[in-house]
Amino acid sequence: MPPPKDVVKIAIQMVGAIPQLIELQQTKPLASVLKDVCDAWSLPNAERYALQYADGRQTYITESNRRDIKNGSILRLTTSPDQEANQLYVGIQSKNVDVKTDSLKKLASLSQDVTFAQEFISRNGLKQIYSIVEEGNDTGEMLAHTLKAFTELMEHDFVSWENLSTVFIKKIVSYVNMNAVDASIQKLSLSILENMVPTSRLLFELVKKEVTLDRLLTHLQATNAELQLKAMALLIALLLSATDAERRDMMDYLREKNLRQFIHKNIIHSSEPLGDEMAHYLYVLQSVSLNLCEHRMKTSMDPYSQEQRDLLQSLRQTAFELESEVPAGSFSTERRRSLCAKEFRKLGFMNNSNPAEDLRRAPPGLLALDNMVYFSRNTPNAYSRFVLENSSREDKHECPFARSSIQLTLILCEILHIGEPCSETAQAFYPMFFGQDHFFEELFCICIQLVNKTWKEMRATQEDFDKVMQVVREQITRTLSLKPTSLELFKTKVNALNYSEILKLRQTQRLHQEETLAVPVLELREKLKPELLELIRQQRLLHLCEGTLFRKISSRRRQDKLWYCRLSPNHKVLHYGDVEEGVQSPPIESLPEKIPVADMKMLLVGKECPHTKEKSSGKQNKDVLELAFSIVHDMEEYCLNFIAPTRYEFCLWTDGLNVLLGKEMTSERTQTDLDVLLSMELKLRLLDLENISIPDNPPPIPKPPSNLNFCYDFSQAEQ
Fold first, then answer.
1. Alpha helices, DSSP H only, in 92-140?
2. What pLDDT is stored for residue 620 in this prediction?
3. Is residue 281 classed exposed, middle or buried when 0-12, 13-18 and 19+ CB atoms within 10 A define those classes?
4. Cβ atoms 425, 558 nearer than 8 A
């Protein structure tokens, strides 16, 4: 007979004593439980003791978290948090260096626990840490433990970062700026500054002033990968907290220092594999850089701006240079206006008498004009060839340069997500972005020539403009999905994907659709579905058994703490626990926490999850909402909260958990996988029917014969 819900069987250890096996009554006050345990070992003053997990993070057991204790848990009797806080508060003030160092080391470890942290902070413990940093000159082990303890204590959000003194902050900054400092201290200092920057404008300005971009670039060039990562994290925090003008200045300076080329050569193409955290920071750096185009993209052309009109006129003058050399006095004003209108029409403007009207649409706004001017100035031969070639074509077959440029700029903005906020979890960046300073403009130069090439391949007319741009969008999207490492490689691949190749790809898709829409085939699909859905269920459960590494994300920043979750091979228990960076697939025995599948009540996703309700509802958290899910267990009182690293993992985990709960798999990935499996199975089944048309209706069954005398009588043959 299973034990009642309010009773868990656990073991309690103590150094030098035989462990106790007890049945913990969850309704019984924790103080009474401790008294019973202490009495069993003849220990006086039970109030000086506490229980904590023996494995994993060794969290203290409190009334608020005691329900997380599972059957079979191993606890340890230890000094209570308030006693430990008192002892360590005294220890870190000791004149004995060894005692002080050991106390700080233990403080750094215990500060991860919220109960202990609360006790230590309530005794004004942070003030002592401030003093050690501000007044000490030590840059060794003691300082490393001090900074680690400070970081862990601040992680619990009991104290505002704005309460820090300028002296303390400048001391932290000095460790970043010093050369002869241990890398572990510099890593912790960079991490502290990274946490500090987003919390207030004053702290941002102070850190930006004290830690120069040159210093951060020096750390980025370090051979220590962790130091490099922390330097990148601080750089990203500064960029995200800056105003648009400050961000532009910072990016201009980083461009002068060839940051992109360094990243392309020494980080992306390093011999070491790129970690998830660095991939995320590179994605953010790419997004921040591309979003510098947002202002121009959303700004319409002002027909009264002389600067913008000059840019527009430069397009005409560059294209029709020889014709523009005719002296101004040779033509009347009316004739000159007519000539300009004719030239703007050849350039492909819809409104040739007032071309500024074409650029009033925002987006793409002035960004389209910038791209056209960049193309004309940096590749004048290609620009002139594009315009003059189309000027000599028949009216209906000319490819309009200006109209194409405006639409192409809009397409590139949509594909590259310009103007959209950075995701908190995304890691998708384009390696070729870091190999080129003027990436967006250079990409435009390649793609506008692609438009002309595709236009000729399609033998398009003005009426086909939208069709051509759809093909170009598909060419760009398909090529970018291959993640080319340089713009030259992109150019080669996108030009190889010509219109005939696109037609072949489309025809293959169309034939596949037509083939699978025949009535008999649809009936066969329905018969195959249950078997293939069972295959998908097994794959989902197998993925849960392999487990996944999840990251803890707070509302303040993207955190670097990791935890792992996996399903037991018998599909009865979910095991999870914190792990260190670099651990790929920890054994199931090393994960101390457990949730029996039988105790799981329901699955929550997106906005329904408790950990998304705690976060702000801004646009920047949209991606987190799409990746969040929670398991409700134990009478709907407790939740295990997840934020999947990718949408793929989200789909596999939510599907797997729904299978464990006996529910239907609802993710979009289920339908995709089912379609792929059905397609493969149908192709195999219909292999013998290739080039044979399948009728919509089965052939009629013939009537039975009037007699069966045509049957051969074997009995007579044997005689």
1. 97-110, 114-122, 125-135
2. 47
3. buried
4. yes
Q: 3-class secondary structure for 469-483?
A: HHHHHHHHHHHHCCC
CA–CA dist 646, 628 (Å, integer): 10
pLDDT tens-place string over residues 496-515: 999 999 998 888 777 666 56
Whether the per-residue pLDDT at 325 is higher than 60: the answer is no
CA 423 centroid distance within chain: 6
Cα distances (Å, whole numbers) of residue 70 to 364, 564, 594, 634:
58, 18, 7, 11
| Residue 288, token pair as written in the block | 């921040």
Q: What is the mean pLDDT of residues 227-244?
A: 94
Q: d(Cα 542, Cα 536) in Å, to the nearest integer? A: 10
* pLDDT reported for residue 70: 81
Q: Output the CA torsion sign for 521, 527, 528, 530.
A: positive
Hey, what are 118's tokens? Answer: 């609360």
Q: What token pair was written down for 377?
A: 């100035």
* CB distance 183 to 169 below 8 Å: no
How far is Cα 28 from Cα 7, in angstroms, rounded to an integer? Answer: 10
Within 272-332, where are the H helices?
Answer: 276-290, 294-297, 306-319, 321-324
Spell out the domains of the chain, with CATH numbers in brackets. 7-79 (3.10.20.90), 84-279 (1.25.10.10), 298-321+334-508 (no CATH), 530-671 (2.30.29.30)
Output the six-digit token pair for 572: 């009865």
Nearest partner of 85 among 56, 48, 51, judged by Cα? 48
pLDDT more than 70, % of the chain:
91
- pLDDT for res 4: 62
Q: Is the pLDDT of residue 619 over 50?
A: no
Residues in CB range of 256: below 8 A, 6 or more apart: none
Q: Which residue has the tokens 């005689």?
A: 719
